[in-house]
Amino acid sequence: PGDALRVRGLDVTFTTRRGDLPAVRGVDLDIAAGEVLVLLGESGSGKSVTARSVMGLLDGPGVRLDAAEIRVAGHDIVGGRPDDVRRLRGSTMSLVFQDALSALNPVLSIGDQLGEVYRLHRGASRRQARAEAVELLRLVGIPAPDRRVRDFPHQFSGGMRQRILIAMAVALGPRLLIADEPTTALDVTVQAQILDLIDRLRAELGMGVLLITHDLGVAAELADRVAVMYAGRIVETGTVAEILDAPAHPYTAALLRSVPDLADPGEPLRPIPGSPPNLLALPTGCAFHPRCPRADDTCRATRPPRRPLARADRTAACHHAEEGVDATV
Ligand code: SF4
Ligand code: MG
Questions:
Q1: What spacing in Å lies between the alpha carbon of 249 and ligand 2's midpoint?
Q2: Which of 62, 140, 206, 268 has the fewest beta carbons under 10 Å from its own?
Q3: CATH number of this structure's domain 5-92+175-270+304-323, picked from the four choices 3.20.20.140, 3.10.450.50, 3.40.50.300, 3.30.1490.270
């Protein structure tokens, strides 16, 4: 593991007028080539901040980033020279997010935008770049690519634009693709097609994928492994089957109860009580304790470290993880 991505001890703090905001704490991640890791959690849990840290995009006033290690395909992101890290973006590592329309240039044809990647990074001629752009559109399933390559972003549907954004992201054969809520703005059918596309490209190009989502259905569809985030920390890791069938952390269990169960559609939904914590004033001990049905004095006093359960990559940060989560509480 760790061929595509290795993160150790990532802390990110935003300094605000109201105090230090700990957005990410102690995050470790490993993604092997060809593997999909889903980072799952509510908004504000630190998923996107983690992604931007990996891309080397979190820098500047108001941000403090500390990490023992961030490596993408072996390249040092934390200790690397800014110029080297910039060159890795869009080639060795790529980021796709939800809003394809704002990511594309409205006044350039799709062919010019895709072709530019080859002209800038590979020194391709205009003619070569156009031919590569057509091939890319074909790769991501755009019908009639040799005609559509001349069209502009607004001439495509939302789903097709997301395909184009993904084409741009994989143009140079990245070792790591980060997809941050890539299907959130799309309807369910199109969503499934985009997830299929990401999975096909993962297999064909052998890249590691870090998929960020708040949607358990998306996680179930694509993940090999899942890391659940809460209040800036990873609180549980495991294979997708372990996480969905036998969550070890009460937050994961609560998350599962809050969405429709395809296997058991009659079950009433139970939203997670309370609301995500204010990061400027985190609860003592376990950050989940005000919302947790099992919280006791130990939970309120002491923060639970994340510990291995059955295996080293099956972990949970809960004082009572070994006792198992009763799905009915
Ligand atoms: Fe709940 Fe305690 Fe586990 Fe936190 S440590 S999730 S409060 S049981
Ligand atoms: Mg986000």
A1: 22
A2: 268
A3: 3.40.50.300
